[in-house]
Write a structure and sequence with these properties.
about 130 residues, mainly beta, seven-stranded mixed β-sheet, 1 helix, about 5% helix, globular
Length: about 130
């Protein structure tokens, strides 16, 4: 079965850290760029970060720069999003998506972007004291 599965979400206090994982099954992740998106209640989906398929070039939206780090381990068919110094405004359901480099990069600035090949079902991150 072809799918992406996110994990690693949970409840964390402000200032804490979480590491999200995005594991692919049924296909090889190294051929794809991966985007991380989030959607908070009542808000549009937001592109958070992406990592390219070729040289692992990364992008971060301004609100997470310096706090979030995307990485990939192709041997494990997995992409990670390390989230540090978490803030209440980071609370959201986080999704990963796989696609070609151009589509994923364009999706970072387009809240309703489509055209990704695969989407995960999301993992909830709650930052609260």
């Amino acid at each position: 079965q072809v799918q992406l599965v996110e994990s690693g979400g949970g409840l964390v206090q402000p200032g804490g850290s979480l590491r999200l994982s995005c594991v692919a099954s049924g296909f090889t992740l190294d051929a794809y760029a991966i985007g991380w998106f989030r959607q908070a209640p009542g808000r549009e989906r937001e592109g958070v970060s992406c990592i390219s398929s070729t040289d692992s070039t990364t992008y971060y939206t301004d609100s997470v720069k310096g706090r979030f780090t995307a990485s990939r381990d192709n041997s494990k068919n997995t992409v990670y999003l390390q989230m540090n110094s978490l803030k209440p405004e980071d609370t959201a359901v986080y999704y990963c998506a796989a696609g070609d480099d151009i589509t994923i990069a364009q999706a970072m600035g387009a809240p309703e972007a489509d055209g990704m090949d695969y989407w995960g079902k999301g993992t909830l991150v709650t930052v609260s004291s």
